[in-house]
Amino acid sequence: MSDIRRIFLKLFSIELLSIYLFNKFTNTLRYFIEVSYNGSNFHGWQFQPNAISVQETIENSLKILMNCEIKISGAGRTDTGVHAKQMFAHFDFDDEIDIKNLIFKLNSFLDKNISVSNIFRVKDDSHARFDAISREYQYFITQKKDVYNSDTKYFFPKNLNFDKIDKAIHILRTTKNFQSFCRTKTDVNNYDCKIFNFDYAIKNSDIIFTIKANRFLRNMVRSIIGTILEIGLNKISITDLSSIIAKSNRIYAGPSAPAHALFLTKIEYPENIF
Fold it and tell me: Which residue of 3, 104, 116, 220 has the smallest Cβ count within 10 Å?
């Protein structure tokens, strides 16, 4: 086991212990909140010091409605302009919550681009990020100009070589190290991801890519989709793709696809968090 992994596990264990002791002696209860949002007007999920984020917007609403400081911890973070059909976060509160009433008040109070669909009790040590076993993203491309969905679909009217795209997806399904598709200058030491599913569907003039994995790196999905499109345009060969993966360097992969067409669509948890 590497020193970095030992340190991470030790810190994670300390965090769980602190949560347990805090909850034990303060009688706090842990809740999960399930939300969806249109990310067009937000600078991502995670709190930003000089910009509006989804996390900050929800925390401010909870503070007003519950008359106390509430900090939420998300299952992950989406970049500026990325949307979520399903996102989970957890928070602690020192009493039972009237869940139905709080959901109603939040949806009445929150920005129109954020919706709360559920709030539920979980075990005191359940963690929205660390307990998640899979995440799923979808990327929406349209080859016909759609003025009503231009904020959520990437207009890409060029002809694509789907035989090459199929071969590229097959390679990426079995790839483990995704460093070549990770944003540079991030505090990441482990670039391994397990891909559970990667496929696409063609519906009329739309192409919908779906990718599901145990975890994702920063900018990973958009980098993959951008590279797939370059392959579909015959700008990158299948041999080149294998070389790009082996080099473990972001500069060799294709450009990132635009953020506005990317959706976090599903997060899964084990039954034992409840």
Answer: 3
